[in-house]
Specification:
single chain; alpha/beta; six-stranded mixed sheet; four-stranded parallel sheet; 11 helices
Length: 341
């Protein structure tokens, strides 16, 4: 008999992540800013949720059978989540990833036993894009399924049924706003849909990095990208199936430099080591918080996603040489030359 404070499966460790009040961002916004600690999942990212739901969905549909293989194209975190879930359920994993992602992600996937296929980064319209390569591999591999996270709505269902309900319960049914960036669109769409079911007055905002096309789509009705970003796993140039019907009320565009300010401050002031996508999300939450606080007062509550751990980016975001090469500010404690961030 399993004790009441224990869990009977490692898969039960996915979800039910903590929610933390972020002091610096709250002070900056003039309201309450909360971060959903998705780095607390077993695979250290929000993508564990989608991985579990997509694999369970493939099982339920009879497409994934014992001893089968899960194949996916990913910037890394979804692949890590899939590898962990697949290991727990007895499946093999093949991951196709652009070769410009962090070394830590590649090393982690190999360590988890996944077969890793690296391809050059290219536009989605190119048949050599990592998503198309992974789909073709799944079609050509006996007993394999393609997870297809971008257009597989089991992805957003993980957030409708899980993440949004957790946020609602953790804040005792009082949520004013939610924002995050979109990669597949599953998180913002699913959390948005779930929160809107609870209260139509919850404001759902897209936080888009430069180089993505969704800011212009929701602001002006045109898929148009401007600038560029080094953030991994976020930024989208099309309306995926997960984004169809997403209840986006407003939108913000956040630069890498703005995101890095909050990556630096959250580590230096609050002890949170995060990736750039989290920093961009927090910067967007501050913008949404400022906007809503003017309308609803200083007790406004805004939630965002702390997507993954910064330990996954030691060779990039936390590497002064890499940051200088990208012409990005270096964290003061990493900068041997004393240039402040």
């Amino acid at each position: 008999m399993i004790p009441p404070m224990a869990t009977g499966s490692t898969l039960d460790l996915i979800g039910d992540t903590p929610l933390v009040r972020l002091k610096g961002p709250s002070d900056e916004a003039g309201c309450e800013i909360y971060g959903k600690c998705e780095y607390a999942n077993p695979g250290s990212s929000v993508k564990d949720r989608a991985a579990l739901y997509m694999i369970r969905d493939a099982e339920a549909r009879g497409e994934l059978k014992p001893g089968g293989t899960v194949i996916e194209g990913t910037a890394g975190n979804t692949g890590i989540g899939i590898a962990l879930v697949a290991n727990a359920l007895g499946y093999k994993t093949v991951i196709v990833m652009p070769d410009n992602q962090s070394k830590e992600k590649m090393d982690t996937l190999r360590a988890l036993g996944a077969k890793l296929v690296l391809v050059p980064p290219t536009k989605y319209a190119d048949p050599a894009h990592f998503q198309h390569v992974s789909r073709r591999m799944a079609e050509e591999t006996e007993g394999a399924v393609w997870a297809g996270q971008f257009d597989n709505i089991a992805n957003r269902r993980a957030h409708i049924e899980g993440t949004s309900k957790e946020i609602w319960e953790q804040l005792e049914g009082r949520v004013d706003g939610f924002t995050c960036a979109a990669g597949t669109g599953g998180t913002i769409s699913g959390v948005g849909m779930g929160l809107k079911e609870k209260d139509q007055n919850v404001c759902i905002a897209l936080t888009d990095p430069h180089g993505a096309a969704l800011y212009n789509y929701y602001a002006h009705g045109e898929l148009k990208s401007e600038g560029s970003s080094v953030a991994e796993g976020i930024g989208q140039g099309r309306i995926t199936a997960n984004l169809e019907g997403a209840p986006i009320d407003t939108q913000f565009r956040i630069s890498d430099e703005e995101g890095l300010v909050w990556v630096r401050r959250l580590l230096a002031e609050e002890g949170l080591c995060l990736g750039l996508s989290s920093g961009i999300n927090v910067a967007g939450a501050i913008e949404l918080g400022k906007q809503l606080a003017k309308e609803r007062g200083s007790d406004t509550r805004v939630v965002t996603i702390l997507c993954d751990t910064g330990f996954r980016y030691l060779s990039t975001l936390y590497n002064p040489e890499w940051l200088r090469k990208k012409e990005l500010p270096v964290f003061p404690w990493l900068d041997e030359e004393g240039t402040s961030a």
